[in-house]
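Example protein as discussed:

>
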Amino acid sequence: QNVVSMGRNARNTNKLKTRQPLREILVITKNPSDQKTIEKYSDIILTELNIKKVSFTNDEAKWVSFSAKPNAKVLGPRLGQKMKVISQKIRELTPELVERLEQEGSLEMEEEKIFLSDVILDRQPKMEGVIQTLGGITLWIDTKLDIELIQEGRARELVNRIQRLRKDLHFEVVDKIKVAFETSPELKQAFEDHRAYVVSEILATEFEAKEQDSWTSEQDIDGIVLKLHIQKA
């Protein structure tokens, strides 16, 4: 549940549409028990987050760049005049020392003990993607989109649009339909590449690109005009 929640939050924060498939999610944890539990439910995680593959590693430093900045509200009252010097030392901490601080809970600095609560930790991905951290688990999500993923996302978006139209037209859930559409060659190719999925999801007996005297709806997918004509089969 935490991994799914983190993944959704990462998508929302970085404006990654839910219906856009992504290539990979990497679960970073040093706790073998956590990895075993997450592996057990990896199929559910992939389905919920619309991601193709889940991988695991315990080498966070390879994927994540660590840095820290002082928590002024906490340190200020305690350190007084030493605040400026120690704040600079905190900002200069190497990634290795930041990781050590997180693991051990404290570091000695200018004859002062600096605790984890005295700093604000920041994690940034070393490779293209986004990360999210909760407790002892960090997720790295591959955000690179190739044409294959983009086209699949468009097909999924089409299904969502047609399902909404079915509802607006007061069709029953089990009603089979005929769909005609008109759009760009690029969008048409996306629909054809994923035809079996689209037809199955929308219960279509016909799904064809052809002209109509009138259209049920005019939609927009990724800035591309899509005209739809829907009727019961």
Observations:
- The chain has a mean pLDDT of 91.
- The longest helix spans residues 147-168.
- The chain has ten helices and twelve strands.
- The two ends are 40 Å apart (CA to CA).
